[in-house]
Amino acid sequence: MLDYKRLFIPVLALLLLLTPSLAETRVCSQGCDYTAIQSALDAASPGDRIVVESGIYNESLLIGKMVNLHGLDTGQGKPVLAPESGRVILAANGAVLRGFGIGGPAGSDGLASESENCTLEVVLPSAIYLNDFAGKKSVCPEDAASWNSSDGINYQFNSRVLRGRLGNYWADYNGSDENNDGIGDQPMVLNEKNIDYYPLIEPVDNYRIPDEKQTNVELILAKVNEPFTISLPANPTTGYEWKADYDYVLLKQENAEFERATTETKRVGSGGTSVFVFLPIKPGKSTIYFVYKRSWENIVADTRAFHVEISAKS
User: What is the dotted CATH code of the domain comprising 218-311?
Assistant: First the structure.
């Protein structure tokens, strides 16, 4: 058997972990950069992000580069990795696998069915989270991997707005969730070196998480050091206000203020517009997420998203 561990030099992998994503490509049945995941992997450079749209992918995959492989629900459910023969082999130190159904051909519920032999083989340490697994038999980890997000993630579960580290959904997990935050109270133990400490109680679709489901977003074309504004309808007298979540590396929020609608409606309790001013700092792609809620409640009234493509100033 090929020694996949020799495909990557650990020291080089550690250095690459400090490097931001260099490029983003998309995989889908038609209209994207690639129609096959392996083709996108072969063309990728370490640090790249590969977005895989909804669909069933029957390829056997060898992930031999430190890439971020991100499954995105574009309206037909999360993409499912269901190789007809062979496996999905994670053989790159620092690779990320996020947002997939994994285990075998998808059933009527959209969740991959469990296979007798493992579908996902983990050869080198990787980050694996926010995936739906049919069960423990779907994976065979040979090396220690991280089965949770490294940082806290903002998410909405059962109308509650929460933040925490998130793992994966395992169909055969039988732990409890006493505080109803959607995260199991007991870890999911795969073996002594591989433990999902934050297993999800329900499939990922039951959690509202930024970047996991494609929504209608407005595209903003911006340039470095040229401010742009985003205006949203608001009425702060009700206690509701917009909060922005954005990439602090690429963007800086310079100002946020409320403007009443018109002169005729300048009265107590009238609505208007919240205006946010952002300054692009460096070239890149990012998404600004807005949540409209009261600070003392965990119920979201509205959400908005704006995709920003920043180019260098000409």
Answer: 2.60.40.2020
